[in-house]
Amino acid sequence: MSALGLLGVAAPSSANRWIVILLLISTALTVFGFSAKATSAFGLDGMRPLRYWKVLQNGGLSREQPPSRPEQIWDNPLLRPAFDNTTGTFIITSTGRVAYLHCRVNHLGNRVVTWLRKRDAHVLTVGLFSYTTDQRFTALHSEGSPDWVLKITSPQTRDSGTYECQVSTEPKISRAFNLSVVESVARIEGSRDIHMSAGNTLNLTCSTTVPADLPSYFYWYHNGDVVHYSGKKDVAVHTMDGRSRLVVVDVGPQHSGNYTCAPENAAPATVTVYVLRAGEHPAAMQRGESSTAVPRISFLFLLGVCSSFIVFAR
To answer: Are 164 and 116 in contact (CB under 8 A)?
Structure first.
């Protein structure tokens, strides 16, 4: 017995049976995404899916009024594209360090995100496509993520200013981001010239002048060579919270020279260390230099007197 017989419905005639079969095919094509051109091949142009048709007791078909079309999702205020205001709009970075501007858009749908530079209204990116010859500007986006990021490689102070994230709604919506690129410089605490006695401990602490953009690592150099401290007991480097401290214990004459701190995102700073021998003091060194200058002056004075005497003797 057929399915219609089980439902107590009389089996449709042969012609109606073919119509039912064709309608089932049309519905299947619609469900699986085939276009209207595909259904027209079966002579079903203008027909609606099977759910809008009703099988009558006598085997005939009657057309029912389809339900009203649901409103477009973008007509729903709760599903319109909107910016997520939890991301920061004021970004401070150092020259040469990569800058990221995070624009987060919820319910973007089929809209497009555009990044532009405000000062000259220059379009930088549209979607993931670049519209500038400056290859330092690129757009980053992961499938399914609401984040559209403008990446600026090796930013310079001239790149400071306002950047705008636009969404192609009607009318357009936009959010401004302010980028400040500053020159960061390393700074070693204390005097630029350090005098210390042999056997003492050398402590050098280095930081940068831009606290809003802390470096994650530092390099230390002694007379142009990288300071290697791994596995050494007399040399140690401690880096934390954007500061680095170089410690050298039991210093000797071999530790004299220039020490340079080079953070990853700042210009380096250098100090000069003088390790004095036992019993030697900076004041004694200065007196020694002054005493050597006195004989030179006396010799020149005597030479001048003798020359004058020879001239007058003639």
So the answer is: yes
More confident site: 253 or 27: 253
- Nearest residue to 203 (alpha-carbon basis) of 248, 241, 237: 248
Nearest to 207 by CA among 266, 119, 135: 266
Q: Are 163 and 118 in contact (CB under 8 A)?
A: yes
- Reading the block at residue 100, the tokens are 């990221």
Neighbouring C-beta atoms of residue 147, cutoff 10 Å: 15
Instruction: Tell me phi and psi for residue 28, to 5 degrees.
Output: -65, -40
78: Cβ contacts below 8 Å, ≥ 6 apart: none
* Residue-wise pLDDT tens digits, 140-193: 999 999 999 999 999 999 999 999 999 999 899 999 999 999 999 999 999 999
Query: Nearest Cα to 255, choosing from 200, 192, 190?
Result: 200
DSSP per-residue string spanning 22-67? HHHHHHHHHHTT--HHHHHTTT-TTPPPGGGEEE-TTS-EEEPPPP
Q: Nearest 10 degrees: CA dihedral of 9, 13, 16, 18?
A: 110
Chain segment 109-127, per-residue pLDDT in tens: 899 999 999 999 999 999 9
CA distances for 265 relative to 125, 161, 298, angstroms? 26, 20, 54
